[in-house]
Amino acid sequence: MAKPVYVYAPDCENFDNTGEVGDLKPLQATFAEEKNGLSEVKIRLTYDEYNKWKACRSGAILRCEVPVRMPPVIGDDEYATTTTVYS
Fold first, then answer.
1. Which of 16, 18, 57, 85 is deepest in the core (most CB within 10 A)?
2. What is the pLDDT of residues 60-85, one digit of tens each?
3. Is 84 a member of any domain?
4. For residues 28 and 43, is the Cβ–Cβ distance under 8 A?
């Protein structure tokens, strides 16, 4: 089973809680990312006695774990932590 997913209202600005219905436990969750493009999370839910699945509506904000890229290693196992813009 995938890790929990939390659902928030489209206008939410505070994500320090468990969202509108607590944690959803999807049967499956997949993450896809296009280079310089769309990042997409797809979740597959079951129907539950509390109808938590109904919170996943158009425009809702999902909070879940997704993979991220680490910055490149520079030198002796040190990561790049800043960027420089040249004009």
1. 18
2. 999 988 877 766 667 776 666 665 65
3. no
4. yes
